[in-house]
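User: Please work through this fold.
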Amino acid sequence: MSRKARRTIHTCTCTTCQRHPYSYVAQQHRAINRVLAHLNEKERRRLVGLLASQWGRGSVLRLSHITGMSRNTIHRGRQEVEHPGHRISSGMRRSGGGRPRVEKNSPAF
């Protein structure tokens, strides 16, 4: 049986959590990071994008400090949530990249 590798829970870097680690706001930030630790990359991006669209102005920078995710990733998740039919990107890398196969390079194969 292979176990799924658990992601470490990010520690919030906002000033409220640094000054008052047992406050209600710090508890909420820890709860967000605990949920994100159990999601895959696409689900994390979309959940944080949803939070950013709900929280309004300044939320992307605030969520970047809370979750440790980049602002570009949060913007991308927000776009995916707000425009579900619009195909921004597949989320998967295109095939064909990387080194050529050995069979292709070697005349023996």
